[in-house]
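User: Last request for today: this protein with magnesium ion, please.
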Amino acid sequence: MTPAAVSLEAVTARFAGAGGKEYTAVDGVTLHIAEGAFVSIVGPSGCGKSTLLNMAAGLLPPSGGTVRIFGDALRGINRRATCMFQQEALLPWKTVLDNVTLGLKLRQPGAGKRTEELGREWLKRVGLEDFGDRFPYQLSGGMRKRVAMAQNWIVGPDILLMDEPFSALDIHTRQRMEGEILSLWSGTNKTVLFVTHDLEEAIALSDEVLVLSAGPASRLVGRYPVDLPRPRNLIDIRTEPRFADLYRAIWTDLREEVLRSYAGPPSRPAGGPRQRP
Amino acid sequence: MPLNTARNPWIPFWQAAIGVFALGLWEWGARAGILDKFFFSRPSDVASRVWQWISGGSIWPHLAVTLLEALLAFSIGVVLGVLLGFALARAPTAALLLEPYIRMFNALPRVVLAPIFLLWFGLGIWSKVALGVTVVFFIVFFNTYRGVREVDPVIVNNARMLGASESQLIRHVLVPSALTWIFSSLHISIGFAMISVVVGEYLGSSKGVGYVISQAEGVFDTTGVFAGMTVLAAVVLILGAGVERLERWLLRWKPENSPQAGERDL
Ligand SMILES: Nc1ncnc2c1ncn2[C@@H]1O[C@H](COP(=O)(O)OP(=O)(O)O)[C@@H](O)[C@H]1O
Ligand SMILES: [Mg+2]
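Assistant: Here's the final one, the structure of the complex with magnesium ion:
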């Protein structure tokens, strides 16, 4: 059997919390993501989704457990992955074209001409061929996300990590971007780990949806294969009966966690007596 | 159109009008005998003195010395400030240990250093350069330090995920990020470099615009003092405008150009 593209084996993340106490954000999470799969992680805000993604990226060494990338234990930065962040991550002092080609220049400095050609190709693919000479601040939020997308895909990573990449966009721009992500991904063998707090987005895009419990010490509380056929029409998929069924099934799990996260850890959970052992 | 919008085309006109009015008032006051000519001179006298200096060429050697000192002070201060700012920003422990001393030196009014520099470096240009360096250094140092420390961690993480090595990170992310802070402190630094070397010249030298002013003062030549001040102000303005243009071009990627102020003045 080929090893999973991303394996988290009983990973735990602890941070130095207030007053010298340790804060356990993620506690013993195990998950395996097969090569070529599009998997989403959902969970209430603050539950540790970004933390998990950062561990898969190699930006945050786990306090316990192991991260494996294609079977090899990860040490340092995950060289086979790129990450699209929720916040703006473009270099504001570089033009759009230079931002897109940044990864190529970093990985193989001195490839000059070919790099620029490839950069222009990618700008075209994300519909920004006329904007190569602009600076990021001269673009709209949606356009900046496209630049970030090209910047990530151009280096040809095997794994794409995405941390709520579209949460700052308006709903229409967002649906377009979701469509663009799917068309970039389909037909490739790339693995996508997509973090979102939006369950609809997760179902519409993914092969599998993982539900993370409310923090602290969050764990995986559910995994749902999404058997909707591909290619998917993102505009209409939300009204399909199968989509609604999946949504209901996952939402019962997620709802409880969201309510628990509202209640906050010290008080009694509002969603029912689901106390942690 | 309200007067306080920066784009109002009448603004330069009114700005000039204020200056002309003030100078006119001064001239009139001096001619009418309200202002004592001995203490206040007259704009027309000051102007003709400046013209005399320029056309006669007597001011150029002094101005050249002052500019050389300021340029040296500026360059040395910028290089030292950038290097140390970078080093300390990358070495938090060292920064923590040195912090009280840096604060202490920065709190010191630079003028009090002038006598000691005169003793150490003599009456020539280097005592003035040293004084200018102490001023420029701190402005640039604080801005560099802050610039490196306040790099957006998301941008750093993104660059690392895209494959940046430690040295590439410095080149592509940390330096450009710090440069925005350094550049925005440059036009302040150049002005302060000029002012501090002139103060140094004033306190003891045989050349320079500061020397010209102190000579004029020694013989109660008020017109000469004002003329020296005028020359100095004009040069600082021209230099500042030049640096500001450079700055605006270098920071053209910024949404609106709002340079941060320097850390401290003289
Ligand atoms: N560097 C850090 N230091 C301290 N606490 C952190 C750090 N990063 C995350 N946390 C905490 O871990 C929890 C999970 O954070 P995060 O993974 O960002 O949540 P999510 O992405 O699901 O909204 C939060 O309570 C957050 O405060
Ligand atoms: Mg997050």
